[in-house]
Design goal:
With about 210 residues, the chain is an alpha+beta fold. The protein is about 40% helix and about 20% strand.
């Protein structure tokens, strides 16, 4: 659960922080201050277009929205980006879908980076062997994998964060294969970043899964 915050600035050069010192910002939709890890930053580009800043690295004043499809869609529909930017801006109506793609690609890029550094493997047997010999930061089970396989991986990786937001084809892309069902990334900065982005991605894909069961 995210910690409650006392004060936070949108992004005017001063970091709002919660009592533990974690950076926080105010969502322009809910008005609530949250950890930046639970938000997506947007910036105004040179053409006055709203640009998703997934890495929170673009210059200028940032505009922050909770990392879920409904919040970003509400910001678009209610013209909240213009209000936050204090000027007319161009907003793509497909912005929620674009953010989802960017978050997915960022996760895949991070997995690929770990793989090239020797810190990630794929395949149930290789993952099991890796877990026996190394410190793991995050384990992946494809969202479209058989339920029994996901449960087996959960048992084998007890105590290690399990990410299920990516499907077999997406995980396969990260490993240069047709498809991947199970994977693991070693503990460290890459795994920490992966967990942040996977949790943000879940704000889009969890809602999709819930709609599919209605």
């Amino acid at each position: 659960m995210l910690a409650a915050v006392q004060t936070a600035e949108d992004d005017d050069g001063r970091d709002g922080k919660d009592p533990s010192g974690t950076p926080c910002r105010r969502c322009i939709v809910s008005g609530e201050s949250r950890e930046t890890a639970a938000l997506v930053r947007f910036a105004v580009g040179p053409d006055d277009r709203i640009v998703p800043d997934i890495a929170a690295s673009l210059p200028g004043r940032g505009i922050w929205v909770s990392a879920d499809r409904a919040s970003i869609a509400a910001a678009v529909a209610n013209r909240l980006f213009a209000r936050a930017a204090r000027r007319n801006v161009i907003v793509d109506e497909e912005l929620p879908a674009r953010v989802e793609i960017l978050l997915r690609d960022r996760c895949l890029d991070l997995i690929g980076l770990a793989r090239r550094a020797g810190g990630a493997v794929a395949g149930f047997d290789k993952v099991t062997g890796f877990l026996a010999r190394n410190s793991a930061g995050v384990v992946f089970a494809a969202s479209d994998a058989a339920a029994g396989g996901r449960q087996k991986m959960q048992r084998g990786a007890a105590g290690i964060p399990l990410v299920e937001q990516l499907d077999r084809l997406e995980l396969g892309r990260a490993f240069g294969r047709e498809h991947v069902v199970h994977a693991v990334v070693a503990s460290g900065k890459i795994a920490d970043s992966l967990l942040v982005d996977a949790r943000r991605l879940s704000g889009f894909r969890q809602q999709d899964a819930e709609r599919g069961t209605e």
